[in-house]
């Protein structure tokens, strides 16, 4: 039979080629479909890194399986294989690489998390209120309540999220932010939108049969346009003469 | 006459009496002016029905006879075992672990088909944008599918294959507590029936996770699910104790811990997790039931309760539960590999250590289900670390499988095909799990179809592929007949291709922003969803091939010899099917379970009496 070293070298070469080609193919692609915030950018780079790293792991197992399925078939040979119970060096390398990968990923993830959370300060605050099955946005400085979320581009925004009934989850895919709205316990997130435009937002936590349709619209504009929009909104409790529509 | 003897008929009558007494007494109380709600009716009726059912089936007969001071009839005791081959034993309170194993397997399979039917309804709704069954119906179907499949994954391998095989594999005549074992099984039919009929009680729409306050608003079907799950939990705890005592007290001479088959090791860790974790979810679900029925407010924010507390308690069980589902499958896979690669299991001691490490770590990772829940901010960091750490012991399973396959003499019989399918599916599940362990990527992925794809790759990949591998592998032992190799291979290829065609595109849907648990979606996802639905229907059809193969081969299959796979573990050293007492003489074990490539390939392990 062929010598065991040769099997290893052939498989290792196939693995190396497939890993390099695969990693190059996925490096640098945009995975999150629409990116309109600083947070989504951080998440996309984490996404790409994890994908690049998974290629060699995937290929290792796939090459191992495919090579074995082709070369190690018994084909009517009823004898047993070599009585190998383990290989200390191979097991140690395997464990060493596993631990190194995990520690590296953890460090990268922790840095990314701190980066996403960022400084706990903001230029603009919105109170988000959710109920079955609608979103309400309150702008405390302007005293305005709206069904749309309007935020300024390039500024740090603080969202305080509440729920009146069951758990909902505030999610704007283009911003890469998601945060449950928990009854009896306000939650919060910070975000910085980077691209002006109109984006869809959704409820991401099952909240009853209206969950499917619990959408919102998010508008990102420059500060001046935002102020104009705010001044055009009726203020709820005051008399409606504040600004003629 | 038949009513006088314990059995299914008397059990049904017992349950009916329980329901009658429960509903009757509360109706009387209502007549007396008390205000009693549906939940309280259901609660009392179910509790009494369960007790009536168990008395009727004869679960407490031994203890009642003994407590009454009457002679416990030894012959009667033996009758519980019955004669081999008598089909009626499968419908009775039988204490033979082999009968109980088959009861579990068949029950789990019927439940699998029922839950699969619900999945087909889901894919029917999702095949096209727009609504077919309706949003409310979809949520209820989705919740029932989840609740049932979770139960299948929890009980099928440990309850089915585990019960049948563990005593034989360690050289024992039965489990340590045969009557408790039968009780564990007979606790299941009623809660399973209750979940199956929950649409009649208004259904429940909060998913198997049952987060309050949504689950506090939901219909009576919700309470049916909560009570059913607690009952399944009690059954799990009883059977966990039984497995642990059996493994630690009943091993044959020479069967040291490090000579135990890896499947037994996997189930030992599984049983430990079941014992420790299950009471937490049973407690949480009981508290939730009390919130609904007894007016408590553990999880009612309007009255000082806390809903995040529920999430913590729920996942403190439900993450270890993932390993309760997965470990038996991993054990079955590693049991199959050496026999069809004709090599010793690679790195056996490390594999044992990895199972134990998975067990320990599984208690420290639950909050990765809550990265966007609003739990304490600093807690994300340690949970991210422990979650990623658990990939090290899980990776060792791949090391053991690949190391055994490498340079082996591979025989691609049906069980071995499932091993290869398992490695692929579980690998995809593992790699995509890293994206969900990493907080930055999880924030965008959680509650999307990426998660749906991920957990189907791990649970179907780990548990169901393991279950199929194990069922084909041990089928000759359990039935005494060979399954049809041709149909087995057809089942494998059809199932595996359809499974991957169903769940691989879901990763893409999730990244593109399709939420889970919705009945409708933006029309841009229409094409892919239609493809997925067609693939999903194919999964269902392929399982029909399996069902036909199992039933047909049991009657018509070729007679199996004692050891068709030339394996070395003890269950293959007794006849197929095994004699009623397993061993005429308890064997003495003199070698490890996978001594392939030894002297002329003869089984080195203990020679049981013929």
Q: Can you lay out the helices and strands and say which pair or pack?
A:
The complex is a heterodimer of chains A (245) and B (610).
Chain A: H1 4-26, H2 38-71, H3 88-117, E1 124-131, E2 134-139, E3 144-146, E4 149-152, E5 156-163, E6 168-172, E7 177-181, E8 187-192, E9 197-203, E10 215-221, H4 223-232
Helix pairs in contact in A: 1-2, 2-3
Chain B: H1 8-31, H2 38-57, H3 61-67, H4 74-81, H5 97-126, H6 135-169, H7 178-186, H8 189-196, H9 214-217, H10 220-249, H11 262-293, H12 307-341, H13 348-361, H14 380-389, H15 391-405, H16 414-437, H17 439-445, H18 449-479, H19 485-511, H20 526-556
Helix pairs in contact in B: 1-2, 2-10, 5-6, 5-7, 5-20, 6-10, 6-11, 6-12, 6-18, 7-10, 8-10, 10-11, 11-12, 11-13, 12-15, 12-16, 12-18, 13-15, 15-16, 16-18, 16-19, 18-19, 19-20
Q: What's the number of helices of chain B?
A: 20
Give the distance, in angstroms, between the N- and C-terminal Cα atoms of chain A: 88 Å
The CATH superfamily of the largest domain in chain A is known as Cupredoxins -  blue copper proteins
Question: In percent, how much strand structure appears in the residues of chain A?
Answer: 15-25%
Number of helices of chain A: 4
The count of DSSP E runs of length 2 or more, i.e. the number of strands of chain A, is 10
